[in-house]
Amino acid sequence: MRLVRYARSGALRLGALDGESVIDLLDAAPLGTAPALLAALSDMTRLIAAGDAGLKAARAAIKKAPAAARTPLAKCRLLAPILPSLILCSGENYWDHREEKPEVTRKDPEFFLKTGLGVTGQGDDIVLDTAVTKKLDYETELLIVIGKPGRHIPAAKAHEHIWGYTVMNDVTARDRQVTLRPDGSSVYNLGPGKNFDTCAPIGPAIVTADEVDDVQKLQLRTTVNGELRQSNSTAKMIWTCAQLVEFFSTFVTLQPGVVISTGTPGGTAWGSDAELGGKKPMRKDVVTASGYLRPGDEVVCEIEGVGRLVNRVVTA
After folding, report:
1. What pTM was estimated for this model as a whole?
2. 86-315 CATH choice from 3.90.850.10, 3.10.20.30, 3.30.160.40, 3.30.450.20
3. Residue 150 carries which DSSP code?
4. How confident is the model at residue 174, as a pLDDT?
């Protein structure tokens, strides 16, 4: 299933994508559906927490959806499919991204947080606020959605805790994130570099885990104004999705609706920024960025089998 949140007459609704239409799960719920499941069909986090019972109820609604429960996708305003309070993030998870920036030495995944206050959805604007940054960058990332709670989850059992996947653009203020010292070494400030309004577009849908045959074999692409900037595969992750679930669950109990971002590959604008230690990639299959994002730019973040997230940059 591909599940979305959307706006209808000013109200937040939960739906499923079916071709070129959206099925409203609450409107399509069969008569006799238990009240607790009706509540789950109206809220993404509740649906995730309902586990197998929630998925069964959603599938039943989709299977018998009447025409009245369908709305053309073109007439729907999709919202971010989930509104997490925090996003657990793992950076430096592709070798080619490590190679395009100042040298790092790390034995464990990078661990930082993004605030849910920066979450936006499909078609929403990314705001370039020059009071925050003059070097706004894109990062296409696969986002893991946790379904079953747990702590100290071994990688071999991580799949039991993953409910689905979606796409996130880890929008970054590079001049807030990194400062170079005179000797060429760097200082990272991931708090201000990763947290500001519209820093986390997510969407367009959450794809349930059963729809993804092998999460470590998905193609990932970023285009800016049609130029291919990032092109890689989740097969090239340094730490797999399962290993990241194991890692983050070492520190906190993962709850339904928690999300984990899995890092971005090379091809960011940072790689072209010598002022911040960037090192231009030696690749012919992608376009090397000539600069950072500017108002009017259209950024498309796409992951095979998961979704295509489109946002436009605007002036504050």
Report:
1. 0.95
2. 3.90.850.10
3. B
4. 96
